[in-house]
Amino acid sequence: MRRRPCLLCPGPVNVTPAVRRAVAGPDLCHREPEFAAVLTGVRRKLLRAFSITATHRAAIISGSGTAALEAAVLASVRPGRKLLVVDNGVYGARIAQIAAIHHLPTVHLRFPGLAPLVLGRVEAAFRREAAIETVAVVHHETSTGVLNPVAAVARLARQFNKSVLVDAISSLGAEPAPLAAIDLCVGSAGKCLHGYPGLSFVLVARRFLPALSARPPRSLYLDLRAALAAQEAGEPPFTPAVPLIQAFDAALDALVREGVAARIHRYRRRAAFLRRGFDRLGLAPLAPRALQSHALTALRLPPGVRYDALHDAMKRAGYIIYAGQSGFRGTMFRIAHMGALTPSDLRGLLRALARALPRRRAA
Ligand SMILES: Cc1ncc(COP(=O)(O)O)c(C=O)c1O
């Protein structure tokens, strides 16, 4: 058994020793200037890392990615206007679910399974439904490992004068995101930014701020406008996840040092290395190569291999792999390449897979 388990789930991820030390940092009261300095630093570093200091503001939300997503969805449309949800998987469907729970009118465009996301359908919806104010789309649909053409959706939205909400929870840090074209970009500390789970954020375009201030609050806790205003004033309305913010600060220091472009390159190299290994093991990817993100690979379970048995064998070797979701449960499994993984972790993972799979596959 390895010294530490290698987390190959799409969050929580393995973190660096510096991030682990930071989560056990000094005890801070959230109403003292010491905490205000950390929070301001985190918000600034996020903008700086992604080179959007001049165009965006960052609101930190204590809660997992879904919390920031819910805050963004609630801020996405004025009363009486509609949210167009582009849904090609579990997380696209979640956006529609959030909107439905809060009775926000939506136009729900479904692309089931691995059907390609057809921009013509998005355009047709814009033409058909004048009430659409904002389009929401997931960047990396983590349930299938498919990367969606967010830049093209955002271009189309601009042509039709619509706002753009992107769930970039599992892509920021691993894939280039067209942030200049995104009004509400939702991210999470605990995936490709290498912090802990339970902390999330929304990057809000400055051009969206007047629209944001005109929205009625639709939640007390997940009120994006109020969160942003309170964080700018240094007066958190609720008790924030102080240790997670301290840890995220350390993770962002590492990101700023490395640079987002270099981090993305690292993810590309990881994905290429692992996928050569998966090919050698005879493991077929779920999605065509051209659609796959660099953050995760969804693989078909070979005939005769049960997920539970594979999971348990890998866990005994120290590697936590991840099951298929919804329609793909039982027929595929996922390996996320997120977090502070070393080249030796990746080599060890391929060796463990070779041992866990039936012999003929491991040739
Ligand atoms: C694309 C995407 N959106 C939303 C979520 C939900 O995030 P959380 O589980 O942190 O609430 C996830 C989690 O994996 C995700 O990958």
List the topology elements:
Blueprint: E1 6-7, H1 17-23, H2 33-49, E2 56-62, H3 65-74, E3 82-87, H4 90-101, E4 106-110, H5 119-128, E5 132-138, E6 140-141, E7 146-147, H6 150-159, E8 163-167, E9 184-188, E10 199-205, H7 209-213, H8 224-233, H9 242-258, H10 260-280, E11 296-300, H11 307-316, E12 319-320, E13 322-323, E14 332-336, H12 343-356
The protein binds pyridoxal-5'-phosphate.
What do you see in this structure?
- The chain folds into two domains: 6-12 and 260-362, Aspartate Aminotransferase, domain 1 (Alpha-Beta Complex); 17-258, Type I PLP-dependent aspartate aminotransferase-like (Major domain) (Aspartate Aminotransferase, domain 2).
- The protein contains twelve helices and 14 strands.
- It has a seven-stranded mixed β-sheet, sandwiched between helices.
- A hairpin with an 8-residue loop joins β13 (322-323) and β14 (332-336).
- It is α/β, with parallel strands linked by helices and 363 residues long.
- The model has no long low-confidence stretch (mean pLDDT 96).
- The protein is globular, with a radius of gyration of 20 Å.
